[in-house]
Amino acid sequence: MKITRALISVSDKTGIAKFARTLEKQGVDIISTGGTAELLRKEKIPVREISNFTSFPEVLDGRVKTLHPRVHGGLLYKRGNPKHEAEAKECGFQPIDMVVVNLYPFEKTIQKPDVTLAEAIENIDIGGPSMIRSAAKNYESVTVVVDPADYDTVLENMRENKGETTLKLREHLAIKAFIKTSDYDRMIGNYLNREQITEASFSLSLPLVTKLRYGENPHQNAALYGDFERHFEKLHGKELSFNNILDISAATNLIAEFSQPTVAILKHTNPCGVGSDVDLRKAWEKAFATDKQAPFGGIIICNRAVDEPLAKTISEIFSEVIIAPEFETEARALLQKKKNLRLIRLTTSASEARSAVDLRSVCSGVLVQDSDIAIEKPEQVVTQRKPTKKEMEAMLFGWRVVKHVKSNAIVYAAADRTLGIGAGQMSRVDASRIAIWKAEEAGLSLRGSAVASDAFFPFPDGLIAAAEAGATCAIQPGGSVRDKEVIAAADERKMAMIFTGVRHFRH
Asked: In terms of DSSP H, where are the helices of 138-274?
């Protein structure tokens, strides 16, 4: 069926005049509303106001204009169905063969820092989604266009089919339309859920990025959803696995903590070592020295471009993935010789790539929380001795890392590197013992180091173990009923200690 009549009503007016002019040249009768009609008239494109088409004025400050039987009847009646055709004729429904609609900018509105609830509600589109859904339901006869990016495709399809669109295209556009209205309603619901007193539900819709070969293990099906590919570009290597993606995410969250040139090595989402230096190769050497066994088959991330000297150094061990904002030509050529190595370019800042929401699946449900991206400036000295400048730098370095280590987490650090990391233990003192043991295995001295704990020391034993290992200062959240005992133990050993007041559990 040739397209003879189109209803155009858009908030995003990108490309709409060119699109409408082409339709008009093909003899399409154009109906429009408000600002869209005004724009088309300025462009000398013949247009009928919606009120002329419905014989009913726009009322309630424009809240009611397309919510009319002549609009939805013209969209919904089944072409070729004798009963529908007769009723449409009796009711005066003129067929609308195409709807071109995009919605009020609700998302942009709620992103404004000073937006009010009333302003947000006024930007909830009602007529637009209604027309989109009516047109999409009757896609056998009606073409629905919700994305300016599809204008050229639609016009080309019409040119190739003597003013008609193909059923295949209409099906594709209808699916896209239903996803659009679903996402729009979900966004409104989530916003009101935050702003209103009553909590209703949480919903999320993400586009499929890719099906994965398998999940955490080969017997598990898996897929990646969202806009992961907006932040990460694979330059070389095999397709990413489920576990690769988890590690890339963990590595990106960690590197976002550092502004100075830094290299981090991770395995199973836990840091093996982190080092900072203006010479990125030296930063690598500091990170690698923390643990020379665990990095085999691990993930390496840098927050500066990888040059040839660094590439030569890190290519000496087998790694699954290397992530960096850029790879210099010589470095990339060298690393691409390893066919099993995946090179990933971080196309945005690490901070931008981090998700604001953390989702965890649980039995028959989902836990939702804000991501742990809190940035605090720990300054509460609770011991008799204040930390030196060097000790303070070491504590802050360890504090940036420990929040990314599985709890219970202990990190021993210098001002520019990790020295020992203990992760995921049931007892905090055991995490400390493992960190000490790892440092000994690596041949690193903990004398003069800082110890960072993701949560408070429940007993003095963890702090005492750190002091005996050589730590001279400690950083921890505080908040234990035995804080006084822990502080006393630190004072007895002439240690400096800071309470942050912020805990960083990572389960």
From this structure: 151-160, 167-195, 242-255
